[in-house]
Amino acid sequence: MAGSEGSNVTELLNRWSDGDEAALAELTPVVHDELRRIARRYMARERGDHTLQPTALVNEAFIRLIGWDNAKFDNRSHFYGVAAQLMRRILVDFARKRPKQDGTVLLKLSIEAAAEMDGTPDPEILALDEALKALAEFDERKARIVELRFFGGLSVEETATAIGVAPITVMREWQKAKAWLYLQLQKTG
Fold this sequence. Notes:
mainly alpha
């Protein structure tokens, strides 16, 4: 994202948080394309016959975002990170509610592309969700970095801004988190 667009989104978020409903009307078209990009990333990792479409995922996440009372976002990275987390939760909820014919849920999610690990198996989204929950239990920052980078598609710099650390810290924590997740998913695969 360009710096001016990022500051524009942050300004609109602040105005909206302060109760300016007109800011929400301005914000919606500005963030829609980025939210669709995040949704397409999620959906690209899903099985081919998935009935949930990226537009529906964006709409559901956006409805939840604007429905929060006293919503306050620090900046555009924070907003997109929360949106990505909501999309992940929506997909996990969808996966839990929609079993396959034999009663098992098979929503495939490849960690290869984002984690850049050769030979990584295609774990189910539920297995990845469980692994992220386990990671968050002992290292919440690493789990948050995975959510922002992998699910939200944020850059190292955007992630650093969103969580308030240096970019080098994000890079180090990202590498450690990928390795930990890889091992966890190997155990469950």
